Amino acid sequence: MEEIMRRGAAEEYAEWFRTLADATRVQLLAWLARQKDPVPVKDIVAAFPLSQSTVSHHLAALARTCFVIAEPRGTSTYYSVNAACMTALPGAAAAIMNGPVVTCCTSQTSSDATTSVAQNQAQKKEEP
């Protein structure tokens, strides 16, 4: 009999997919992924036909689920894509279907998330 996915992992994946269920968030994430360096929120607002509060709301949701990293710098916040989380996303979809659990960064620092993703990828390679 197959094991049931851990509840904590299922809740984390559900949160990831809820966050990405909004087209504006997907657009923001895709745009940020194409930026070479972290971008100040004012530049993100300038790139989108949305109010500053709407952009900030969506960026906060992406940051809560660790899809983006928010770096306060002086009076502004700079945003960049969390590469560890983006690498883990396909693994999350695979885990839902039939694979091992892959984590990103819920309750973890970014460096912990990178380690966790690397460990999960190594584990996948070892499995038959």
Description:
This protein has 6 helices and 3 strands, in the order ααβααββαα. It is elongated. Helix content is 59%, strand content 11%. The protein is mainly alpha-helical. The two termini are 18 Å apart. Strand 2 and strand 3 (76-81) form a beta hairpin.
Tags for this entry?
mainly alpha, disordered C terminus, 3-stranded antiparallel sheet
Question: Helix and strand layout, with pairings?
Answer:
Blueprint lengths: L6 H13 L3 H11 L5 E2 H7 L4 H13 L3 E6 L2 E6 L1 H15 L12 H17 L2
Helix pairs in contact: 2-4, 5-6
What's the average pLDDT?
Answer: 79
Oligomer: single chain
Estimate percent helicity.
55-70%
User: What class do helices, strands and sheet pairing give?
Assistant: mainly alpha
Q: What composes the largest sheet?
A: 3 strands, antiparallel
Query: What is the overall silhouette?
Result: elongated
Rg for CA atoms: 16 Å
Range of strand content = 5-15%
Compact description:
The protein is mainly alpha-helical. It contains 6 helices and 3 strands, in the order ααβααββαα.
